[in-house]
Amino acid sequence: MDRTETLPADDAGIARAAALLREGRLVAFPTETVYGLGGDATDDRAVARIFEAKGRPRFNPLIVHLPGLEEAEVVAVFDHRARAVAGAFWPGPLTLVLPLREGAGISPLVTAGLPTVAIRVPAHPVARALLRAAGRPVAAPSANPSGRVSPTRAAHVLDGLAGRIAAVVDGGACAVGVESTILGLDGEPRLLRPGGIPAEALEAALGQPLTTGGSAAKPNAPGQLASHYAPGAMVRLNARAAETGEILVGFGPVKGDLTLSPGGDLVEAAANLFHILREADALAGPQGRIAFAPIPGHGLGRAINDRLSRAAAPRG
Ligand code: AMP
Ligand code: MG
User: What are phi and psi of 117, to 5 degrees?
Assistant: First the structure.
């Protein structure tokens, strides 16, 4: 990739950053917690590139950033509890996990195929200006390579991601430095990650205690992995040809009934992955079988293989 642009946090810099996001490019930007690595949450390829740039070995779900409650309600379904905590703590370091609104156009790579979505309205003026200018939901994990410390300055972002992203908006040092608190409100209120807003403050606003522990997106035992989107059909990996009755999902030279990427492109394959899982599942039917062509184990191939091996794991 080309040189990563460092953009000033002024009107021109924000306009440039918003234009890059709308083109499906990746832009790091300051929030009040840490710098986020943003990509258009409605663009499968942009979201695939987030995982590629970070070198994430898994497609764990990403937080969608929005400029306000009105825009957030387009993406997620709010109940009275969600409106109460949003009213009390947004904009700010609070992420809500809520039912995904069907038809909102959020890439299934953002939600890992789950029926819920994590959303937040950041308080940082630069983040809010950028989200308004972009005019679309922005998926943004922390702007660091997987396994490294979260960045709180533009220079930290460049240390880890220079040459891998289109731009960073330099808004100085982040104020909080710890990540957002994640509150699950898709059922009983659950603290999914401690962070910038104390759990006690959330309990006071909700008028009830929070539970902790495993969630659909953060299973704490291998047996819970099937709570990720799992096809109903049986899945076989590293297939070079279909056996009788199987739907074959190809990649590169292995043609199939469907293909993750005819040209063997891993970004395209990642962008297609959750769509193809559903499509193959529908074609195979509940008692059917799906076979996947071999996927290389480098770059995004690691995360694709991680997801496919979960789909192929025996279920109880
Ligand atoms: P990061 O990308 O490092 O900011 O982390 C995002 C966090 O949000 C991870 O801990 C995810 O597991 C969590 N998360 C995102 N979406 C969901 C969801 N739909 N349900 C539960 N947790 C989620
Ligand atoms: Mg992180």
Answer: -140, 140
- Whether the per-residue pLDDT at 316 is higher than 80: the answer is no
Q: From the CB of 192, is ligand 1 less than 6 Å away? A: yes
**Is 129 buried (19+), middle (13-18) or exposed (0-12) by CB count in 10 A?**
buried
Tokens of 42: 């409605």
pLDDT tens by residue, 275-294? 999 999 999 988 899 999 99
Nearest to 264, CA basis, from 277, 24, 255, 117: 255
Residue 113: HSE in the Cβ half-sphere, 13 Å Cα cutoff = 22
Q: How far is the centre of ligand 2, averaged over its atoms, from the C-alpha of 245 (Å)?
A: 42
Q: How many angstroms does the Cα of residue 155 sit away from the middle of ligand 2?
A: 17
Instruction: Report CA 87 to chain centroid distance, whole Å.
Output: 24
Bridge partner list, 290: 235, 247
Q: Which domains does the chain have, with CATH numbers?
A: 5-212 (3.90.870.10), 234-311 (no CATH)
**What are the beta bridge partners of residue 94?**
181
* 231 CB within 6 A, ligand 1: no
221 confidence band (pLDDT: 50, 70, 90): very low
Q: How confident is the model at residue 313 (pLDDT cuts 50, 70, 90)?
A: confident
Residue with CA at minimum distance from ligand 1 atom 2: 141
The verdict on the CB of residue 190 being under 6 Å from ligand 1 is: no
Q: What is the pLDDT of residue 219?
A: 46
